């Protein structure tokens, strides 16, 4: 033992116990060394010399001593060294990982943002790669720590199980402090990992948003609005010749087409900007500034092009009205003075009411409108000249002249010829058709813009953090109920239907095909209309919300959001009106049949929407009412009910007043409901229908006429066990219901008849002959059926194979070809002779039974 080394012990020493060796040599060396250093020990701490292990037990409990010192402590120094080495290595590795995380965080913070999208993408990939490596190091270190912790827990468990077999005073090496150390290091590692993940997630989000911002800026620069605006400014409408005017109009059309494409892309950029802003982008202010700039440029460009287009359309509309006026003036009225003067005054009055751009008279019209106005103005001037001649001719004084031979009639002026009148009518019809077509496309554009303004100005603003304080949480959670599937409707019209209609501007005959091709897409309006009552209720609850007022102020709308939520319903009804107007001016023209089909499709859609709105108001029906399918007919009727097998009560005999029931007709059932009006304000009153009972259409029959009232008809059930006398509001309603009921019952009858025949074929045994049948048998059968085919409606053919199959009888019944193979047993030739033979009677029985629908 070298006592000066004790000074390097890290703790404070209070007592030193020295156990002398047992051998003489070692004991002598220990005494000599102790004498030389005794003074140092006496100054610092007491030292006690012990002669044996027994003396050591007087100072230290045997539970704290190992077996070599006479104690009972279970301790292995080599295991302790291995464990301490692992713990210290784990602690050093945790410290190193902390330094790596700190260095990587500093690198992320000091990284300069590049100005190119490709560089940002490379930077993202590089940072993600480093992040994955550090995460793998942290996970590996965590697994090492958990493994070390499990080893300590295993040691503790083994010790516990060992000490239970000993006395309670037998100690073991305590590893609780080491377990706490490892647990603390694992906690520190976990906290570092969480902090690092959060920091890196924010960094990646910042890089993603920066990349989105660069992409948005690039889209903003590529919007090409400035180029289109400059082209619009350079386009001049001041022309000197007709060719220049036509060229200017063509350039305006081309520029408008290009402007629509550019503004559509700009609107998509604006929508993308609002989506970025709704996603809490760090550059929201800059993005919204760009959005406002794009909106301003789009509005300015659209206003400039619209101004030029409006002036030309104003002149064109005036020309259309002029052609219509000329076409309506009958040539027969020009034969009298009064008729000619009246027509001339009408033309002069029409010229006085010319547009403001023409108030200076036809002589000084701007040359830029020459291409549009000149042909129609020439027609008016020609008509004026002809009417003046007629008026002057009628007011000449009567003169006596010598009789002369009658001159052959001169040809009429081309302006009053029937051919010219037909051309005028044709021009008027084409003008009206073109006007309706332009109205359809222009209103469609306005409709798409209004939908976009609602989605951007209201729905997207619900995600704006600056307006979060004005928006109730309940309303934010139910924004899907408020707007329904309006985003789907906008996507359909902006990306598909509007483009289809614009493609038909030069070919109006294709409008009907546009509606028919998108017939299935229009079914989304049914979903929107079914959600409309819930949307209206939510709007009435929050209509006074400050959020809606702020959004309406920003958009500059004069009407509230509820008016714009009604736009899809109004637009759906507008389509059928425009199609009726187009069909009115397209009779016997190309595409008129498609227009008629489109009109019927829109009317059917309106009926389906109306019926579905009534269907969702049915209450008390057990089961899923949607499984019944589509509502075919629905309406309110007066109903009397009588039961055949149930005795009539006095109360029912006294019921002269009918029950009011609302009937819903499906393909398989007929529902009887009672209409109820909900209590509440006028705007809140919505009808509901309480379910009463239903009858299956498979057991229903009808009687079309009932004595006493032409509006009544009968619906009876199960062989007239229940009879419902139904009185319709009018004869027209009755006939429409009877037509639909007849169609359903006819289909039911065909279906049941087919099932009955199929069941008969499956269950009827086939009889096989005992031997081959001679060929003359089939000939006799063919001869017999040919004689009676005109009465029975039968045909017969002989199959080629197999030889045992004698014939196939085809029974034509109810426009269905039912084919049955009849195999007869063998007969003797004697049985075939005579009209009353066995063969004749049997064959007659079989064929008549098949014809009458009986089993053979």
TrEMBL record:
SMART domains: PH, RhoGEF. Residues 117-144 form a coiled coil. It comes from the Eukaryota. Keywords: Coiled coil, Guanine-nucleotide releasing factor, Phosphoprotein. GO terms for cellular component: cytoplasm. Residues 1-77 form the CRAL-TRIO domain. Pfam families: CRAL_TRIO_2 (PF13716), RhoGEF (PF00621), SOS1_NGEF_PH (PF22697), Spectrin_5 (PF23289). One of its GO terms (biological process) is dendrite development. This is MCF.2 cell line derived transforming sequence.
């Amino acid at each position: 033992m070298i006592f000066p080394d004790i000074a390097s012990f890290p703790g404070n020493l209070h007592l030193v116990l020295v156990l002398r060796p047992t051998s003489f040599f070692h004991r002598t060396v220990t005494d000599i060394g102790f004498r030389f250093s005794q003074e140092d020990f006496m100054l610092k701490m007491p030292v006690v010399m012990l002669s044996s292990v027994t003396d050591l037990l007087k100072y230290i409990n045997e539970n704290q001593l190992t077996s070599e010192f006479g104690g009972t402590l279970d301790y292995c120094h080599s295991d302790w060294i291995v464990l301490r080495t692992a713990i210290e290595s784990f602690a050093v590795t945790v410290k190193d990982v902390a330094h790596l995380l700190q260095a990587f965080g500093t690198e992320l913070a000091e990284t300069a943002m590049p100005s190119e999208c490709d560089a940002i993408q490379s930077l993202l990939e590089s940072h993600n790669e480093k992040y994955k490596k550090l995460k793998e190091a942290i996970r590996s270190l965590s697994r090492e720590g958990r493994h070390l912790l499990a080893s300590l827990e295993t040691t503790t468990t083994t010790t516990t199980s060992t000490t239970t077999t000993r006395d309670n005073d037998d100690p073991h090496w305590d590893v609780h402090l080491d377990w706490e150390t490892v647990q603390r290091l694992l906690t520190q590692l976990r906290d570092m990992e969480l902090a690092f993940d959060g920091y890196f997630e924010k960094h990646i989000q910042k890089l993603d948003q920066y990349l989105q911002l660069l992409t948005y800026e690039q889209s903003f620069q590529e919007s090409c609005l400035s180029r289109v605006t400059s082209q619009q400014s350079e386009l001049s409408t001041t022309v000197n010749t007709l060719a220049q005017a036509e060229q200017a109009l063509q350039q305006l059309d081309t520029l408008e087409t290009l402007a629509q494409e550019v503004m559509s892309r700009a609107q998509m950029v604006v929508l993308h900007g609002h989506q970025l802003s709704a996603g809490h982008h760090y550059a929201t202010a800059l993005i919204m500034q760009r959005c406002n700039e794009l909106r301003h440029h789009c509005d300015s460009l659209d206003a400039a092009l619209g101004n030029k287009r409006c002036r030309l359309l104003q002149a064109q509309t005036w020309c259309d009205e002029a052609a219509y006026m000329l076409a309506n003036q009958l040539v027969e009225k020009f034969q009298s003075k009064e008729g000619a003067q009246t027509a001339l005054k009408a033309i002069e009055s029409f010229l006085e009411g010319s547009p403001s751009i023409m108030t200076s008279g036809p002589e000084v019209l701007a040359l830029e409108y020459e291409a549009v106005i000149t042909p129609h103005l020439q027609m008016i001037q020609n008509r004026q000249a002809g009417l003046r001649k007629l008026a002057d001719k009628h007011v000449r004084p009567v003169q006596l002249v010598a009789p002369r031979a009658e001159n052959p009639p001169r040809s009429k002026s081309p302006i009053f010829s029937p051919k010219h009148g037909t051309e005028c009518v044709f021009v008027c019809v084409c003008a009206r058709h073109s006007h309706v077509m332009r109205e359809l496309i222009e209103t469609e554009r306005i409709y798409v813009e209004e939908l976009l303004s609602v989605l951007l100005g209201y729905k997207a603003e619900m995600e704006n953090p600056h307006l979060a304080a004005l928006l109730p949480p309940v309303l934010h959670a139910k924004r899907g109920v408020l707007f329904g599937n309006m985003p789907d409707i906008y996507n359909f019209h902006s990306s598909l239907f509007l483009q289809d209609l614009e493609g038909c501007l030069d070919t109006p005959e294709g409008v009907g095909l546009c509606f028919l091709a998108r017939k299935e897409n229009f079914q989304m309006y049914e979903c929107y209309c079914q959600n409309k009552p819930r949307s209206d209720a939510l709007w009435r609850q929050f209509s006074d919300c400050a959020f809606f007022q702020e959004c309406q102020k920003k958009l500059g709308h004069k009407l509230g959001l509820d008016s714009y939520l009604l736009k899809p319903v109004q637009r759906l009804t507008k389509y059928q009106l425009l199609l009726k107007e187009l069909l009115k001016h397209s009779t016997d023209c190309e595409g008129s049949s498609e227009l008629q089909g489109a009109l019927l499709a829109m009317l059917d859609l309106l009926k389906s929407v109306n019926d579905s709105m009534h269907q969702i108001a049915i209450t008390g029906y057990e089961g899923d009412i949607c499984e019944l399918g589509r509502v075919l007919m629905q309406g309110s009727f007066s109903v009397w009910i009588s039961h055949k097998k149930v005795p009539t009560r006095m109360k029912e005999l006294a019921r002269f007043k009918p029950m009011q029931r609302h009937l819903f007709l499906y393909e398989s059932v007929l529902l009887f409901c009672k209409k109820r009006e909900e209590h509440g304000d006028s705007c809140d009153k919505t009808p509901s229908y309480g379910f009463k009972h239903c009858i299956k259409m498979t057991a229903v029959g009808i009687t079309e006429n009932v004595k006493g009232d032409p509006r009544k008809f009968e619906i009876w059930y199960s062989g007239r066990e229940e009879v419902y006398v139904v009185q319709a509001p009018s004869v027209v309603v009755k006939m429409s219901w009877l037509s639909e009921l007849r169609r359903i019952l006819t289909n039911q009858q065909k279906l049941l008849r087919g099932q009955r025949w199929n069941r008969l074929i499956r269950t009827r045994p086939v009889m096989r002959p005992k031997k081959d049948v001679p060929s003359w048998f089939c000939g006799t059968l063919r001869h017999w059926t040919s004689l009676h085919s005109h009465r029975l409606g039968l045909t017969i053919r002989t199959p080629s194979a197999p030889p045992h199959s004698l014939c196939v009888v085809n029974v034509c019944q109810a426009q269905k070809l039912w084919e049955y193979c009849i195999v007869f047993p063998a007969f003797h030739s004697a049985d075939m002779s005579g009209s009353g033979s066995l063969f004749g009677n049997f064959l007659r029985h079989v064929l008549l039974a098949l014809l009458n629908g009986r089993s053979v």
